[in-house]
Amino acid sequence: MDTYFLSHRGSPMLAARPRAIPILVVSAHWETAAPAVSVVRGSNGTIHDFYGFPAPMYQLKYPAPGAPELAKRTKVLLEQAGLGPVEEDHGAWVPLMLMYPAADIPVCQLYVQPGRDEAHHHVVGRALAPLREEGVLVLGSGSATHNLRQRGTPRSRRRRDGADMATEHLYQLHVALGAANANGGAVRAELIHHSWTGSLSYASYKFTTTS
């Protein structure tokens, strides 16, 4: 199973929907000091963690089923790699609404650590590599650029103070790359979408293990 990094303000995956049960989404919109996963029994809620967008955006719902067993498996893999203890938390619907509009695939969410660096998130990804062989889609949902404050555009609510820059929206790329690079072998990175809105890049990538 290939891994992906998607700039979630665009819709680059509409023509390429890898089937996977379930999906692990590495999210840019929930930040924790240590690795944490969502444990949802029943349906995921839909959090509208942005403001200044058209009203219909706030009516969208994506009640995908939770994936508590994937959450437990993710927790074990991360702790075995020395990245624990891993917290269990609960809630990712963009870009999944575009990729899988039926909301019929179980989803679990993994949170980023904005206080850590790219190397940390690459290690997190490498620890999760066994999930690929188990049919899990590891999907990093972020943004290649995310400086919304300077553009004066609608933006996401942040849980912490500081500049709304790309860093916490790019760590998901390192997790997806790490998951394809568990044994330090070669990985092919394929640009699957590239477009711009002003200074915002929607570049998205697929990572394939080649050796």
From TrEMBL:
<keyword id="KW-0560">Oxidoreductase</keyword>
<protein>
    <recommendedName>
        <fullName>Extradiol ring-cleavage dioxygenase class III enzyme subunit B domain-containing protein</fullName>
    </recommendedName>
</protein>
<keyword id="KW-0862">Zinc</keyword>
<dbReference type="Pfam" id="PF02900">
    <property type="entry name" value="LigB"/>
</dbReference>
<dbReference type="GO" id="GO:0016702">
    <property type="term" value="F:oxidoreductase activity, acting on single donors with incorporation of molecular oxygen, incorporation of two atoms of oxygen"/>
</dbReference>
<keyword id="KW-0479">Metal-binding</keyword>
<dbReference type="GO" id="GO:0008270">
    <property type="term" value="F:zinc ion binding"/>
</dbReference>
<comment type="similarity">
    <text>Belongs to the DODA-type extradiol aromatic ring-opening dioxygenase family.</text>
</comment>
<dbReference type="GO" id="GO:0008198">
    <property type="term" value="F:ferrous iron binding"/>
</dbReference>
<feature type="domain" description="Extradiol ring-cleavage dioxygenase class III enzyme subunit B">
    <location>
        <begin position="22"/>
        <end position="154"/>
    </location>
</feature>
<dbReference type="InterPro" id="IPR004183">
    <property type="entry name" value="Xdiol_dOase_suB"/>
</dbReference>
<dbReference type="InterPro" id="IPR014436">
    <property type="entry name" value="Extradiol_dOase_DODA"/>
</dbReference>
